[in-house]
Amino acid sequence: MRLSLRPRTQPEVNLTSLIDVVLLLLIFFMVSTSFVRESQIQIRLPQTDSSERIEEPADNIDIMITETGTIFINSRELINSRPETIRNAIQRVSGGDNTLPVTISADANARHQTVVTAMSVAGRLGYTQINIATVNDPTDE
Fold first, then answer.
1. What is the DSSP string of 10-76?
2. What domains can be seen in the chain, in order of their start residue?
């Protein structure tokens, strides 16, 4: 008896259904993804309009913040930058008079948190005239 062998066919993988599933998953993830825009704050940084120097009153509080985070209040260095220390120093310098203007000047490389802490302490003490010192940009002249 002679048996004839059938030619073997190579198995074929149909990729059409796989591609359909991948595209459906892609569309599903694109539609279901929520793009959350965090609240954005528009910040206008202060700039000077002229190179005139404005004379400051003799009685004001100068807060200077260095690059390393050291704080000077009226040219006297504080031992640390904790809010309690800043509050005590401001009260000592002002004698409790919260109508004095406060000028904050910080190094360009100072941490923003230190500047905000100084502003926050002055605001909590009731100071309403809080100024931030700026410098002229030499390229604008």
1. PP----HHHHHHHHHHHHHHHHH---PPPP---------SSSPPPPPPSS-EEEEE-TT--EEETTE
2. 61-140 (3.30.420.270)
